[in-house]
Structure formats: C-alpha cells, structure tokens
Amino acid sequence: MADLSELKTQIKQVMVEELMLPQSADEIADDAAIFSPQGLGLDSVDALQLVVAIEKRFGLKMADAAAARETLRSVNTIAEAVNAKSSA
Prior knowledge:
- This protein has helices spanning about 5-20, 45-60, 65-70, 75-85.
- It is mostly helical.
- The protein has a single domain (about 5-85), classed as ACP-like (Non-ribosomal Peptide Synthetase Peptidyl Carrier Protein, Chain A, Orthogonal Bundle), CATH 1.10.1200.10.
- The longest helix is centred in the first third of the chain and has 16 residues, at about 5-20.
C-alpha cells in the first residue's frame, strides 16, 4: 500500500461499519488501544468480527490468537500488518 494514511482511514471505516461503533472513523485515534477501556473498549466478539472483516477487505490472515492479539492492538498495528503483507 502506497499511502499509509489512506490505509488507516480505510481500516477505521471498516471498524465503524462492521462493528457498528458509536463514533465516526475520524474520532478513532491511530494509536488508540482497541481492546482497552481507555481506548475503544472492544470485546472478544468484536475481535472475531474485526478479524473476519480485515481478512475479507484487506486479505490479511491471522493464523492464531497470538498473531491476532499482536496485530489488533491499534489502527497503527493493523495498518503495519496490512502494509507488510501487501509489500511481501
């Protein structure tokens, strides 16, 4: 992916649409902790939906729970993983 900023915007839009978040994509900080109460406060059901949405939209497969936990820390970490996959 050439434009990391655009990728982050797309990831936020997917999160808002797929998880029916109460905030807009613009309100989600790139470094907000996805599962922390101080961040977005998502739960395990949201995690599953997010994994499926990211795989469907960006083709990024997360082989196991440890990989998903590492990737799904923030919009930044998701973007880095998608970008690395696209560059490979």
